Amino acid sequence: MAEAAPARTVLKIFVSAITIFYGFVPALADLNETHLLNPLWSEHARFHTAWFLAFTAGVSGTALFLIWRRDEVFIPITLGLMFSAGFWAATLFRNAYGGALVDSNGHTHTIAGIESNTFLFSVVSILLVATLVAAIRIYRSPSING
Question: What is the pTM of this model?
């Protein structure tokens, strides 16, 4: 059981970093004139943006509580995967509801030639799947857990 503690701690730090990224970075990125404060957006669209950002921060805070106070990583990883799945669903079905990855009156950011949200959610999604695999191995392995 002694070897499990360092592995679990490293995993918890990694899951926490991903959780902080998906939970709070979008709020920082969207609290400006291109999103929440955009005067060209309807008041209702801005309301939904504020609601989503508050909800995401709250879920992420809960996930961090679970990670560090309950030694629970599976629920936080699942919440992160659900958050990512929401992005991918919105991306996949954007033509059906008239959506777009970038606003025509906003600034477009790219990373390595890829739209920044698509790039970052790809990285987050891959990291979340990798942490899920690691969590299964660390928390469920008889060799680590005795």
Answer: 0.87
